[in-house]
Amino acid sequence: MPSFRLSALALALILSPAYAEQATPAKPASEITRERNQAWLQRLPFSDRADFDNARRGLIEPFGGVVENAEGQPVWNRMAYNFLDGNDAPASVNPSLWRIAQLNNISGLFEVRERVYQVRGMDLSNMTIIEGDSGLILIDPLISTETARAGLELYYKHRPRKPVLAVIYSHSHVDHFGGVRGVIDEADVKAGKVQVIAPGGFYEHAVSENVLAGPAMMRRAQYMYGSLLPRDERGQVDAGLGKGTPSNATVTLIAPNVLIAEALETRNIDGVEIEFQLTPGTEAPAEMNMYFPQFKTLCMAENATHTQHNVLTLRGALVRDSKVWAHYLDDALVRYGDKAEVLFAQHHWPTWGGNEIRDYLADQRDMYAFLDSQTLRLINQGLTPTEIAARLQSLPPRLASKWYSRDYYGSLSHNVRAVYQRYMGFYDGNPANLDPLPPEDAGQRYVAAMGGADAVLQNARQAFGAGDYRWAAQLLNHLVFAEPDNAAARELQADTLEQLGYQSENATWRNVYLSGALELRQGVAEARARNGAPDMIRALTPSMFFDYLAVRIDAMKAADEDLLINWRFSDLDEDYALTLRNGVLTQRKGARHAQADVDLSMTKALLDRIALKETGFLKEATIGGIEFESGRLKLLKLLGGLDEANPQFNLVTP
Ligand SMILES: [Zn+2]
C-alpha cells in the first residue's frame, strides 16, 4: 500500500508562521535607493497630518503588548513594531509606506462616536463594537480567537460588561470572521440568544475561496504578508491594510443564522437600526455595507479603506470587478453621502465630516472606475498588460495626491494588469508570446546568447550599479533559472530584489521582494505544521471535498482507471455519483450510478475527522467506519495514489 494520506486539506488562511527573530543578513539601502526614497518627500503632501489626527481620535487605551495563545506562544506582538514610532523614514523604507506603517501602528480601543467603538491594530483587521440597548453588536471578530478575545476584554476594561447579542460578518474573508469563537459561544447561537448575521452566500465563499488553490495561495501569502521576514527597517514594516497577520492563531467559524438576502434590508437589533446594503462581487464575493441611521454612521466594510485595494491580490485569487466595485461605492455615496457624519471601515481609521465622507467615497469610486475604464481604453488601442502598467504610471494628479488612493495594498501597476486579465486573459495577442519557453529553458538560452554566465553577471552588475534594478532583476532571473547554484547570481539577485523592496510604496510589493531576497540567501524554510481550522474543514461541503480530490489526481497516472463510484453520506442523506474517466474525477450530486465499481457509505462527520487527521481513511475502511458494498480495494488504490501539494515550493529559483 502506498503512503496513504487523504488529510492534507490545506486552506489558504492568511496565517503567518512565526517570523524570524534573529538579525537579518539584509543589506543597507544603496545611495540611489536613498535618493529615490528621499524624492518622495516632495511628491506627496506629508505636511497634511489629518490622518494621524483621525487615527488617534477617540483613543481610550492604546494597545502596546503581546497577545498569546493558550500555550503561551505569541499570536500578536505590537511591540515588534515599536521601531516605527516617532522616527523619520530610514533610507530602506519608502516614506509613503513608512507613513502608513506609522498610522497602522496606532492601536488600541477607540470611541468612534457615542455607542460605537473600535478595536484597531490588534490584528490585521478592526473589530467594531456597537452598544445596543441591552447588549453588544460586534462587526467582524478579527482573524483569531486570541486577538478577538483580547480586543473585547480591552473594551470591557472601560465599558459595562454587557453580553454580545449579535455578530455581523461584513464579508467572507477570514480576517473578518476567524476569531468568532473568542467572543461568542455557538451554543448561544443555536439557542437563539445570539444572532450571527452575514451577507447572502457568505458561508460557501468563506471556505470555497481558499480550498482548490489553497496550498499555493498559502505559500504566496507568506511572501505577500512578509510572514518570514524580521520586523525591522530592513524587513517587514507593514502589510498595507494593517500590520500583518497573527501567528500560532486559532481560526474559527460559526455559521450565520441570519442571512441578508435583499439588496437593501433594514433590521432592528437590540434597539439599533441597521440598513444593510449588499455589495456582491466587490472586494469579496459576499460583502455588505451598513448604515446606522440613529448614529448617522456608515460602515463601508472593506469596500473603502485608506489605500487602493486589490483587484487581484498577489497571493492569487479570482480577479475582482473594479467596475462593480465603483458602482456600489457610488450607490453608497448616493444613499448615505448626505446623511453620514462618520464613516468607518473594517481596516484603518474612520473619516469624520460630511464633506470629507463625500470626497472620500467619490474619490474611491473614481479610483476603481479609473482602473476599469482606462485599462480598457488602452486595451482597445492595442496595449498589452506590461505596456498598460508602464503607461498608467499614476492616477490623475488630484486623485493621486489623496493618501487613501495610494498603493499600499493594491497597486496601480498590478491592478491594471488584473483588469486586463479579467477582460482579455493570459494571452497578449502577440503570437511570439503564444508558446514561450518555460523559465529554465529560456534562461539557459538567454545566458548562452548573452555570452555565458560571467557576461550576464557583468551586465547585471552594471545595471545594479546604475540603479536599473528592474532590468537587473530580469537579467539575473534568467541566470538563476539557468544556474540555480550560481552563488554570485543568487546573491546579486537578492541584493537587487532588496533594493526594489526598499523603494516600494506598496507594502505587499516590499514584502514579496524582501521575501524573495531572503530565500535567495537562505533557501526555503522547512514547512511547519500549521494549526488546523476544524470549523473550516467542517464547513466544506461534500462537493467541495470531491472537487479538491479531483485536483489531487494525477491524470496521466490514472488515465486507464475507469471507475464509477457511488458515495453516500448517511448523516446528510446525500448521494454522489463520481466518475473517474480519462484521469479526471467528476461528480453528480443527488445521483447514483446504476452499476458502480465502488459503492460506499459513511458520515460527513467521519470525513471531517479524517480530514482533521483524527483518524485515517484506511483505518476506517478496515474497521467498518466506512461501509463498502463493493470496490473497497479499488478506491483505496485510487486514494493511495493521490498527489501531495508542495507546501513550500520554490518561487525565486527553479
Ligand atoms: Zn480584511
Descriptive labels:
single chain, 654 residues, alpha+beta, Metallo-beta-lactamase, Chain A, Serine Threonine Protein Phosphatase 5, Tetratricopeptide repeat, Nonspecific Lipid-transfer Protein, Chain A, eight-stranded mixed sheet, six-stranded mixed sheet, globular, binds zinc ion
Report what the structure shows.
By secondary structure, the chain is α+β, with helices and mostly antiparallel strands. Among the domains are: 32-271, Metallo-beta-lactamase domain (Metallo-beta-lactamase, Chain A), CATH 3.60.15; 436-522, Alpha Horseshoe (Serine Threonine Protein Phosphatase 5, Tetratricopeptide repeat), CATH 1.25.40; 541-640, 2-Layer Sandwich (Nonspecific Lipid-transfer Protein, Chain A), CATH 3.30.1050. Helices cover 37% and strands 15% of the residues. The chain contains 22 helices and 21 strands. The protein has an eight-stranded mixed beta sheet with strand order 1-4-5-6-7-8-9-10, covered by helices on one side. Helix 1 (31-43) packs parallel to helix 16, helix 9 (354-379) crosses helix 12 (412-424) and helix 14 (453-465) runs antiparallel to helix 15 (469-482). The longest helix has 26 residues, at 354-379. The radius of gyration is 26 Å and the shape is globular. Mean pLDDT is 94; it is low at 1-10. The structure holds zinc ion. Residues 125, 173, 175-176, 302, 347 line the site of zinc ion. Zinc ion (ZN) binds next to loops.
